[in-house]
């Protein structure tokens, strides 16, 4: 059982990192596009973002995972495709601020293309924010994968902490008081999610002067 507990960590991390990468690419791309171009692009993209924001993420993830099937890559895609709206909102707000700053106005007046402005001036200034948010989203993605696996919607051929809790529940280990079947994976989930959450908040405080000054 100790070996299985150790082997479950890479699966949870793979799902968390891969799903977060999808969420960050989608969220950052939509946020930067909406914030920089404004007008109809901002309106249309933000209405789509608002639609996904009002939907409860966990029930949506469960419904999509149940519909598309039990596969590790399906789980990664489902979690990644539903975790981007918050990132899009945060990146859009920062991009709106950067778009009106003097150095962006100056390079635009010198004839720089929108693509160059986004690549050289906007993206490097929003990357610290994206990076801090990425660490926070990883914890949520790992928790979502554990929830899906616990409900029996995970990949049955992959061992994750959620899968171990699912089998512990099915075998009646909780009712028999066999704590060694469900306490270790539960503690593992809590510790990893808490570690990423605290790390994300620490990075955010280090990179945000207003938060750093309020401590």
Structure description:
The chain has 215 residues and is mainly α. The chain contains 11 helices and no strands. Helix 1 runs antiparallel to helix 7. The protein is elongated, with a radius of gyration of 20 Å. The mean pLDDT is 81.
Order of helices and strands: HHHHHHHHHHH
Count the beta strands.
Answer: 0
Average pLDDT rating: 81
Q: Which structural class best describes the helix and strand composition?
A: mainly alpha
The main pleated sheet reads as:
none
Estimated helix fraction: over 70%
Output the radius of gyration: 20 Å
Strand portion, in percent?
Answer: under 5%
Shape: elongated
Cα-to-Cα separation, first versus last residue: 43 Å
Poorly predicted segments = none
Number of helices, where a helix is a run of at least 4 consecutive DSSP H or I residues: 11
Topology, pairings included?
Blueprint: H1 2-37, H2 39-54, H3 57-68, H4 72-82, H5 85-99, H6 102-109, H7 114-150, H8 161-170, H9 173-176, H10 179-207, H11 209-213
Helix pairs in contact: 1-2, 1-4, 1-5, 1-7, 2-5, 3-4, 4-7, 5-7, 6-7, 7-8, 7-10, 8-10
Main attributes?
single chain; about 220 residues; mainly alpha; about 85% helix
Briefly say what this structure is.
The chain has 215 residues and is an all-alpha fold. Helix content is 85%, strand content 0%. It has helices at residues 2-37, 39-54, 57-68, 72-82, 85-99, 102-109, 114-150, 161-170, 173-176, 179-207, 209-213.
């Amino acid at each position: 059982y100790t070996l299985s507990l150790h082997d479950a960590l890479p699966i949870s991390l793979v799902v968390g990192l891969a799903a977060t990468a999808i969420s960050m690419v989608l969220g950052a791309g939509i946020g930067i596009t909406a914030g920089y171009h404004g007008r109809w692009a901002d309106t249309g993209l933000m209405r789509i973002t608002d639609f996904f924001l009002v939907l409860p993420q966990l029930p949506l993830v469960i419904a999509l995972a149940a519909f598309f099937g039990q596969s590790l890559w399906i789980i990664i895609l489902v979690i990644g495709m539903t975790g981007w709206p918050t990132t899009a909102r945060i990146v859009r707000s920062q991009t709106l601020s950067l778009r009106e700053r003097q150095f962006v106005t100056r390079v635009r007046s010198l004839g720089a293309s929108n693509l160059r402005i986004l690549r050289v001036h906007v993206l490097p200034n929003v990357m610290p924010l994206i990076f801090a948010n990425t660490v926070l989203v990883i914890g949520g993605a790992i928790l979502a994968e554990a929830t899906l696996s616990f409900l029996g919607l995970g990949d049955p051929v992959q061992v994750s902490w959620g899968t171990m809790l699912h089998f512990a529940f099915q075998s009646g280990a909780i009712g028999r008081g066999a704590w060694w079947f469900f306490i270790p994976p539960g503690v593992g989930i809590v510790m990893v999610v808490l570690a990423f959450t605290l790390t994300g908040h620490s990075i955010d405080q280090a990179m945000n002067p207003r938060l750093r000054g309020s401590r």
